[in-house]
Amino acid sequence: MEIISQLLPFVFLIAIMYFVIIRPQQKEAKNRQAMIEALKKGDKVITSGGLIVTVYKVEEQYLSVKINEDVTVKVTKDSVIRKYEDEA
User: What share of the chain is helix, strand, coil (3-state, %, to 5)?
Assistant: First the structure.
């Protein structure tokens, strides 16, 4: 019985860490992955480099994006941080 009473605070600490830290991160990662999978031509996104670009072509692992009318580059899907929502 003493072992259970000594381990109980650790169990509570692990449970609190799970619900406060681990679970929200997993949920955020799942939402981000769903957003990346739903990208289509014409969507504006923000890359990890801070560029606001327009999706030109969706490939399996990469996105071809347009920086402006003349420049098209390939970026990994992992480099997309979020969709750009125009405030105007």
Answer: 45, 30, 25
Q: What is the mean pLDDT of residues 33-45?
A: 95
* Distance of alpha carbon 6 from the chain centroid: 39
**pLDDT for position 1:** 79
Tokens of 63: 């996105």
- Round to whole Å and give the CA distance between 38 and 65: 15
Considering its fold, how many domains does the chain have in total? 1
Determine the structural domain holding residue 71 and report its residue range. Answer: 2-83
pTM comes to 0.74
CA 24/CA 30 separation, integer angstroms: 10
Centre a 10 Å sphere on the Cβ of residue 55 and count the other Cβ atoms it contains. Answer: 19
pLDDT above 80: residue 86: no
Indicate whether 88 belongs to any domain. no
Rg from Cα positions in the chain:
21
